[in-house]
Structure formats: structure tokens, C-alpha cells
Design a protein that fits this description.
Blueprint lengths: L2 H18 L5 H4 L4 E3 L9 H6 L8 E10 L13 H12 L4 H11 L11 H6 L7 E2 L3 E7 L2 E6 L11 E12 L4 E12 L10 H20 L4
Antiparallel strand pairs: 1-2, 2-7, 3-4, 4-5, 5-6, 6-7
């Protein structure tokens, strides 16, 4: 296995195991979130092309989805275009699902050099996440639309060039008024930037990652409900 994929595997394994720890009823709690075949746009995005100069295939690419009845969502999030995905994005970082990873990164990387980044739960809950916003020295907002916000991940944003391990973490929130639901999505996409590799994330690591993603999804959605 390529060294970069091994490093990515260690990162995913740590965050997944740490984030899911202590939830004895985890599978029941996250049963409404499902994984489906991921869509194409991230693969063809400018970010993928710029930071993957050797066109390496993704080491991991998945999409977790959840549908929530509109009547259950806070009305103020439905009144202005873009507010729902903004609230969803904020909910991931300020929710309990990200708590263990946030505290770990804070202990390791919070300093004068990273003081302008978002660290505290209140800041994470209230930010509007413009492009360039950095979350806990690991996620940097690189694009957004009225229904999606994407962050670069895999390494510190202070490493702005091509990386050994790189990735995109994209959240979407789409109103399906015909069916009376909001459709939420979390797409994770990891790849090797430096050198060449066709290695895939080991199945046990990928499974842990999916568990953690479901936890992030459900803890974020809870913050959107009435």
C-alpha cells in the first residue's frame, strides 16, 4: 500500500473510532442515514484536477444521505436560499459527533498561528462559512453554492500545495418540495496528490469511516430540527 494511503488510513481510523466511541446504540441511532452510489461532480471538480496532478483514482469516495420532512426543520432555515446548507455545515462542526476530533485537534494545533481559525463550538455553530474559512486546522472551505459547501481536508490548510494525502468533504442540502422533504448529503473523497497510486482504503478502515460519517450526519441534522 502506498505510504500516503497508509497515512490517510490512520487518520480515518483515528477520527472514526474516536468519534463513535461510547455509543452503544450507535447503529440504531444512525439508522436513518444511508450510503448510496456517489455522484460525479467532485471527481471532475477543479479542486480534484489541481491537487491531483497525476490523476490518481480516489482511495475512498462515498456518499451518505438522509431525508428529513420539511415540517420537522426550523422554519428560519427554509426562508432564505442557502441557509439550510449553511446550518447543516455548521451543525457538523458544532455537533457532538465532531466533539472528540475537535478537542484532539485543538490540543495539538491551536496556537497563535491558528488563532484566526474556528475552534470553539459557539463559533462553529454561528459562522456563515465563506470561502477561505478554516475549521480546526484541518478543513478549509473551498467552494459553495446555495445547496452545497465543500471543504478541502486531509492535511493542514497551512500546507496549500499538492499533498501526500488530500481530500474533499462536501455537504449538500436540497429542498424537495414535491415530496415535502429536505435531502442531505455528505460526500467524502480522499486521494493521493504526490506521486502515483491506485491503492484503495482498506475495507475495515473504510467501514469505520462510514460509521463516523453517519454520526456526523445525525448529530448535524439534530441541530436543524424544531
Amino acid at each position: 500500500m502506498a505510504k500516503a494511503i497508509a497515512l490517510a488510513g490512520k487518520f480515518v481510523a483515528y477520527t472514526s473510532a474516536a468519534g463513535a466511541a461510547g455509543f452503544g446504540s450507535f447503529l440504531l441511532f444512525t439508522r436513518k442515514s444511508q450510503f448510496v452510489a456517489p455522484t460525479e461532480p467532485i471527481i471532475s471538480s477543479s479542486h480534484f484536477k489541481k491537487y491531483n496532478p497525476n490523476q490518481n483514482a480516489p482511495a475512498l469516495h462515498d456518499l451518505c444521505t438522509r431525508r428529513v420532512p420539511l415540517k420537522q426543520i426550523k422554519p428560519e432555515l427554509l426562508q432564505e436560499e442557502g441557509k439550510l446548507v449553511e446550518g447543516f455545515f455548521a451543525g457538523v462542526w458544532s455537533g457532538f459527533g465532531y466533539g472528540v476530533q475537535r478537542r484532539y485537534l485543538e490540543r495539538k494545533y491551536r496556537s497563535e498561528e491558528t488563532a484566526t481559525q474556528l475552534w470553539d463550538p459557539a463559533e462553529l455553530a454561528n459562522s456563515t462559512y465563506p470561502i477561505g474559512t478554516v475549521v480546526t486546522d484541518h478543513f478549509e472551505v473551498v467552494s459553495r453554492t446555495p445547496s452545497s459547501i465543500a471543504a478541502r481536508c486531509g492535511d493542514s490548510p497551512r500546507n496549500s500545495g499538492v499533498r501526500a494525502v488530500d481530500g474533499v468533504f462536501e455537504l449538500t442540502a436540497v429542498l424537495n418540495e414535491a415530496e415535502g422533504v429536505a435531502e442531505f448529503g455528505i460526500t467524502s473523497f480522499f486521494f493521493q496528490g504526490l506521486g502515483t497510486s491506485d491503492a484503495k482504503m482498506p475495507p475495515p478502515i473504510a467501514y469505520l469511516h462510514r460509521l463516523y460519517t453517519k454520526l456526523l450526519m445525525d448529530s448535524a441534522v439534530r441541530k436543524l430540527l424544531r
